[in-house]
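Narrative of accomplishments. A recurring question from our advisory board has been how the design workflow behaves on a single, concrete structure rather than in aggregate. To address it, we present the structure tokens for one chain from the evaluation set, followed by the sequence designed for it. No filtering or post-editing was applied between the two.
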């Protein structure tokens, strides 16, 4: 068993020597646990786990096994925080709001080790006590010891029985699957609104969706066409992807160890996200007829995932692409992502440009210029909760209030910037009705120069498998529990010629 699990396991073969002496580990908690705790504390202050954890792992110089333990401990604790807080409230006999923040994170981590990671009770408790002592002083040790003992007395199934209310449904699912109640309700409505559940089947459907958010997402890779081959990724240990012709999936290991990923010819990208870019590139456009080069626009490109695939497709089809992003920092990320494509475009005499600016200005600044426009709108990200474990706790219903006008403004600008016969793809990584179908409906209501075309057919056309269950149409919604992708929404609009 790993050092991080509180002991040594020779069955797992030779391992690097820990840099921390055993006495130190039992006094302050193991390095893996201290690392996870530091990340949880930073996340509590606003940091992003996916950015903070790699830095913390590097700083702690953990070996592979302890790094994997710290990663599972951090992500698993963040995901199941809602359930663990209910358990801790019961076990401590007091609300979690009455516990010191550092101690609460120690207890959440302890609950995760005992209830989900099969760490022996005594090891989890000893380590929790040591960690609590080091972060909050000796006074915390007694409480943590008592709470850990109580948590260990019951299995996870028994804890579910005790802390999950039978009714109302949203509260039940909220505790059982560890999501805020407002997200449970919004996702249930979205499943019905997108036509993949009825009011009779929605309870089961939303439970499946919430459960899917608690399973780590697969590491999907894209081999950017013209720059890398899927075979190159397969040769590096990945297996064939499920939907995208350019996808491969890694079962484990560091994607950065693959040369094509290091060079930016391939990248980590959800397959749903790949399909959206491919659907826009494949959508029929009409009316140009002058033999002129097609002009493509990615209006909200940062950090550049879809732009990377669009740029490769633009090069393959002999089109030009502008990738725009409002934030300087994120525009720089787009530049880095597009570096190999920028070189290839220069060689091919194609125009590929990264711009920094407000996408809402394109309609006025460049009316009717573009043939294909992607609006991958800023959104709540409720479709990507399995990748961003803390996002469910950080997002608020009030976020939708600010995003709504921005999403509508960007879609209007995209339509204005599209020439007659051209197409606009409106996408979000959220299935929330307020940022998907309602946005499209509101914008279409006020215009007669644009029609919605079948996004489901386009996605099915570019996908390698039989892609179904995308909803009532004409827009399409992908789901983690149905398609194994992030919850991506796509509506495709054609400007009337
Ligand atoms: C969902 S992300 C785009 C993800 C990107 N397409 C990808 O695949 O990597 C939305 C982006 O829109 C940017 N954004 C927000 N407001 C904007 C605006 N008014 N104009 C242009 N970009 C904006 C955000 O900074 C963010 O990078």
């Amino acid at each position: 068993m790993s050092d991080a699990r509180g002991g040594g396991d020779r069955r797992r073969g030779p391992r690097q020597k820990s840099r921390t002496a055993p006495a130190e580990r039992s006094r302050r908690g193991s390095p893996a646990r201290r690392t996870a705790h530091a990340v949880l504390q930073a996340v509590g202050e606003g940091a992003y786990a996916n950015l903070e954890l790699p830095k913390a792992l590097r700083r702690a110089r953990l070996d592979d096994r302890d790094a994997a333990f710290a990663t599972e401990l951090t992500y698993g604790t963040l995901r199941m925080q809602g359930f663990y807080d209910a358990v801790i409230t019961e076990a401590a006999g007091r609300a979690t709001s009455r516990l010191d923040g550092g101690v609460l994170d120690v207890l959440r981590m302890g609950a995760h080790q005992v209830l989900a990671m099969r760490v022996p009770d005594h090891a989890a408790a000893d380590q929790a006590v040591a960690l609590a002592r080091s972060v909050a002083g000796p006074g915390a040790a007694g409480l943590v010891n008592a709470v850990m003992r109580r948590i260990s007395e019951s299995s996870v199934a028994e804890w579910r029985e005790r802390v999950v209310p039978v009714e109302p449904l949203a509260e039940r699912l909220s505790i059982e699957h560890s999501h805020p109640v407002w997200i449970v309700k919004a996702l249930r409505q979205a499943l019905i609104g997108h036509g993949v559940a009825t009011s009779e089947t929605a309870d089961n459907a939303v439970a499946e969706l919430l459960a899917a958010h608690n399973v780590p997402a697969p590491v999907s890779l894209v081999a950017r066409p013209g720059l890398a081959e899927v075979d190159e990724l397969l040769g590096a240990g990945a297996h064939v992807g499920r939907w995208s012709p350019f996808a491969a999936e890694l079962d484990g290991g560091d994607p950065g160890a693959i040369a094509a990923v290091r060079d930016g010819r391939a990248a980590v990208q959800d397959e749903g996200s790949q399909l959206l870019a491919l659907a826009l590139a494949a959508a029929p456009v009409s009316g140009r007829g002058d033999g002129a080069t097609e002009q493509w626009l990615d209006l909200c490109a940062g950090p550049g995932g879809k732009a990377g695939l669009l740029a490769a497709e633009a090069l393959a089809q002999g089109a030009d692409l502008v990738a725009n992003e409002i934030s300087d920092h994120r525009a720089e990320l787009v530049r880095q992502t597009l570096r190999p494509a920028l070189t290839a475009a220069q060689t091919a005499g194609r125009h590929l440009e990264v711009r920094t600016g407000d996408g809402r200005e394109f309609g006025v600044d460049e009316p009717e210029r573009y043939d294909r426009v992607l609006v991958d709108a800023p959104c709540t990200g409720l479709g990507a909760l399995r990748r961003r474990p803390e996002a469910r706790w950080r997002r608020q219903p009030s976020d939708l209030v600010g995003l709504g006008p921005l999403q509508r403004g960007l879609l209007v600008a995209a339509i204005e910037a599209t020439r007659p016969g051209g197409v606009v793809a409106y996408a979000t990584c959220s299935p929330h009705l307020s940022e998907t179908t309602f946005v499209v409906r509101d914008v279409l209501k006020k215009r007669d120069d644009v029609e919605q075309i079948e996004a489901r057919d386009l996605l099915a056309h570019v996908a390698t498998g039989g892609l179904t269950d995308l909803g009532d149409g004409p827009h399409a919604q992908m789901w983690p529990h149905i398609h194994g992708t992030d919850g991506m929404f796509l509506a495709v609009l054609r400007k009337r010629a």
